[in-house]
Specification:
Elements lengths: L2 E6 L2 E7 L5 E4 L6 E2 L12 E6 L2 E6 L6 E3 L2 E3 L1 E4 L5 E3 L2 E6 L5 H5 L18 H31 L11 H25 L46 H4 L38 H23 L3 H14 L6 H28 L3 H10 L8 H28 L3 H14 L7 H14 L1
Parallel strand pairs: 3-4
Antiparallel strand pairs: 1-2, 1-11, 3-5, 5-6, 6-9, 7-8, 7-10, 10-11
Helix pairs in contact: 5-6, 6-7, 7-8, 8-9, 9-10, 10-11
């Protein structure tokens, strides 16, 4: 047995067991799981948890703010333990029964109300009272803890202070990281510029004079020092400025192909885009397919199995592997088989009651149904009806010869209804029946 858990702002508000019934979630009180949402981030009927075989599927009921897994909006997804679905201010997850909510809420100072799926706690009025009661208990617990801390501070011998809570540790470590990053950025901004200063242009006034040559005592290898040549005068501005080259011809940059954004439609895998198909045309085609699927489900729920089978067959042919079309098609075929078996039994009862015409019509409707023994039943009923028609003709003639007109008319009608078209006495029976009815 799995548990569905709904949390808001890190606090578990609802935890209930999943059973065979589907669960609807939203702000409205008629949901199986009504949620308190003063900010109205949820729709009145936001989502539904539906059981399909041995798995649970989350379905978004066309809500205004949608349902999200990470950054992706979803309309349908299979729920597994560890997968988090965000709806409004709430987050929905599955958990095993051993991961109980009491162990999580025992270490915190907040009061948490756990809702189990039963007839009392899931009623909308009792759930609102339980949530309000949990809020009052949480407030009372905070008041008691605050009073205890105040009394402990005034006492002469105070207990040893407890270590910082995990939240305070996160705040402390985060502050250290922020100040460290700020110091690194400040050091980078204040470091000296490593580039060498640009030398000023040399002019005649500022040019250094030729170095004076001094002589020293003779050495083994004297070197003659050549005096520096006087500096050249600085070039004029007109001579110094080089001619600007002609502007180069630039080619226009080739267009960059932008990647197509990821398709977030839940039916994108089953209904991919066709080559050259626009986004609007793709959306219209997907909406048409979804509409056909919805109509087929409506026919299936209304026990109109033949119409549902035809719609699902065409949908499976056009869009293979679309959602659970194959399972729904198998269900419609099974429904057709069961319905045909029930209609066959009803036709057999009409046959036993000697209602030959009605029984034969009921058998004929099952011509295309997968029913064994249908051909034998039709032949048997037709033979019995023809025999009964011949007997009715004999009885009608007997009553007619005795002048008992009402009985003769009744038996002539049966004979006309039951005799086969090629019976030699059929036309005589019709003529005599018309004559007797004219006499009345």
């Amino acid at each position: 047995m799995l548990l569905v858990r709904l949390t808001r702002m890190g606090v578990v508000e609802i935890e209930t067991q999943l059973d065979q019934n589907d669960l609807r979630i939203g702000r409205s009180g008629d949901n199986e799981i009504p949620l308190q949402d003063p900010d109205k981030t949820l729709s009145r009927h936001h989502a539904e948890l539906r059981r399909e075989g041995d798995r649970w599927v989350y379905l978004d009921l066309n809500s205004a703010n949608g349902s999200w897994v990470g950054e992706r909006r979803i309309a349908r997804i299979e729920l597994v333990p560890g997968l988090a679905v965000t709806l409004g201010n709430y987050q929905l997850t599955l958990a095993r029964p051993e991961a109980s909510l009491e162990s999580t809420s025992a270490g915190s100072g907040e009061a948490t109300q756990i809702f189990h799926r039963d007839r009392d706690t899931l009623a909308p009025d009792r759930m609102r009272q339980a949530v309000a009661h949990a809020s009052v208990q949480g407030a009372a617990r905070r008041d008691v803890v605050g009073s205890a801390v105040a009394v402990g501070a005034a006492a002469p011998a105070a207990a040893a202070p407890a270590g910082p809570s995990p939240i305070r540790r996160i705040i402390i470590y985060g502050s250290i990281l922020v100040f460290g990053a700020f110091g690194v950025v400040l050091a980078l901004l204040l470091r000296p510029d490593d580039e060498a200063p640009v030398a000023a242009p040399v002019t005649a006034a500022s040019a250094p004079a030729p170095a004076e040559v001094t002589t020293r005592a003779p050495e083994p290898a004297p070197v003659a020092v050549v005096p520096a040549s006087p500096p050249n005068p600085p070039p004029s501005v007109a001579e110094a400025a080089p001619e600007s080259p002609p502007p180069a011809k630039t080619r226009p940059a080739a267009p960059v192909a932008r990647p197509r954004p990821a398709d977030s439609d839940p039916d994108a895998a089953a209904v991919p885009a066709r080559p050259g198909e626009s986004a609007a045309a793709l959306l219209q085609r997907r909406n048409d397919i979804r509409q056909r699927y919805t109509v087929a489900l409506q026919r299936l729920r209304a026990r109109q199995f033949t119409e549902a089978r035809d719609l699902l067959t065409s949908l499976s042919r056009d869009v293979p592997r679309f959602r659970d079309v194959d399972q729904r098609l198998a269900a419609s075929n099974e429904g057709i088989r069961q319905q045909a078996a029930e209609d066959f039994k009803a036709a057999a009862k009409l046959e036993e009651g000697a209602q030959w015409t009605e029984a034969l019509a009921a058998y004929e409707k099952l011509r295309t149904a997968p029913v064994s023994g249908l051909s034998e039943a039709i032949e048997r009923t037709r033979k019995q009806m023809h025999d009964a028609g011949a007997d009715a003709l004999t009885r009608a003639r007997q009553f007619d010869s005795r002048g008992r007109v009402p009985e003769a008319i009744a038996w002539y009608k049966r004979a006309v209804s039951w005799l086969p078209p090629d019976h030699p006495g059929l036309e005589t029976a019709k003529q005599r029946l018309a004559a007797l009815m004219d006499r009345q």
